[in-house]
């Protein structure tokens, strides 16, 4: 089974070797037929502390690293305007 890969923006980098990534998904509501945005925060492992707030990153599923960390940062996408 392939590992899931999500893309989102870093909203916190305060903890050591960890970043919090905000991932947004959009879908059409089944009854209202309106586009709805839902967000979720994931804690991802960042070996080397290279990612900062505002960076657009891709995260990949992994085995549990700590109590809350099950994702690893795999690459950084260029943010718009930078």
Automatic annotation (TrEMBL):
Q: Which Pfam family, an example, fits this chain?
A: Ribosomal_S17
Write out the coiled-coil annotation as residue ranges.
none
DNA-binding among keywords:
no
Write out the entry's keywords from A to Z.
Answer: Ribonucleoprotein, Ribosomal protein, RNA-binding, rRNA-binding
InterPro entries xrefs: NA-bd_OB-fold, Ribosomal_uS17, Ribosomal_uS17_bact/chlr, Ribosomal_uS17_CS
Q: Indicate whether RNA-binding appears among the record's keywords.
A: yes
The record's Gene3D superfamilies line, in alphabetical order, gives:
Nucleic acid-binding proteins
Source species, domain of life: Bacteria
Family designation:
Belongs to the universal ribosomal protein uS17 family.
Q: Which PANTHER family match?
A: 40S RIBOSOMAL PROTEIN S11 FAMILY MEMBER, SMALL RIBOSOMAL SUBUNIT PROTEIN US17M
UniProt-listed HAMAP family:
Ribosomal_uS17_B
Q: What is this protein called?
A: Small ribosomal subunit protein uS17
């Amino acid at each position: 089974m392939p590992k899931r890969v999500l893309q989102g923006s870093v909203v916190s980098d305060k903890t050591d070797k960890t970043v919090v990534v905000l991932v947004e998904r959009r879908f059409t509501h089944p009854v209202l037929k309106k586009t709805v945005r839902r967000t979720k925060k994931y804690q991802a492992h960042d070996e080397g502390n290279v990612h900062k707030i505002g960076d657009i990153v891709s995260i990949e599923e992994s085995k549990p690293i700590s109590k809350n960390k099950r994702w690893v940062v795999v690459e950084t996408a260029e943010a718009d305007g930078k």
